[in-house]
Amino acid sequence: MSAAGRVEVYFDGACPLCAGEIALLRRLDRRGAIRFTDIAEPSFDAAALGLDGAVLMARIHGRAADGTLVEGVEVFRQLYAAVGLRWIVALTRLPGVSHLLDAGYRWFARNRLRLTGRCDDVACARA
Fold first, then answer.
1. Are 9 and 60 in contact (CB under 8 A)?
2. What pTM does this model have?
3. Alpha carbons within 13 A on the beta-carbon side of 72
4. Structural contact between residues 9 and 79, judged by C-beta atoms closer than 8 angstroms
5. pLDDT for position 123
6. Which of 75, 78, 110, 124 has a CA that sits 20 to 30 A from residue 53's CA?
7. 86 pLDDT higher than 90
8. Closest CA to 15 of 51, 41, 47
9. Domains of the chain by start residue, with CATH
10. How far apart are CA 119 and CA 105, in angstroms?
11. Any residues with CB less than 8 A from the CB of 55 and at least 6 apart, and which?
């Protein structure tokens, strides 16, 4: 699979829960369909991609194979489809399920620093 046809995920590698999900996806990605970009790495430069680092850190983002920027639950849909788990993606699109997942992810994104023990006065004051 060419690099241009891959899904890219921008993830916070310093987040233990996020890193666990990414580790699972790396194991499932036997075809190399996903490009993993750790935005917590010191060498990561959001501006070089035309993106805002604080926005990327606030919630998960990705780039679909067609180049479209996606965020939140849609990133996970793209990732799971890329590793062949389309049936999971279909379940996440069911009425009710979709809204619950979106609401749950928004709550998680706002609270992930607190939930993972990485909260400081500045970071958690914004949440």
1. yes
2. 0.85
3. 13
4. yes
5. 54
6. 78
7. yes
8. 41
9. 3-126 (3.40.30)
10. 18
11. 61
% of the chain surpassing 70 pLDDT: 89
What is the Cα–Cα distance from 31 to 61, expressed in whole angstroms?
Answer: 21
Query: Within 29-120, where are the H helices?
Result: 53-58, 73-82, 86-92, 97-115
Read off the amino acid at residue 127. Answer: A
Which phi-psi region, left, alpha or beta, contains residue 33 (left: φ > 0; alpha: ψ -120 to 50)? alpha
Tokens of 39: 């935005």
Q: Per-residue pLDDT tens for 24-58?
A: 999 999 999 999 999 999 999 999 988 999 899 88
For 45, the token pair is 């430069």
Give how far Cα 2 sits from Cα of 6, 39, 60, 109, Å: 7, 22, 23, 31
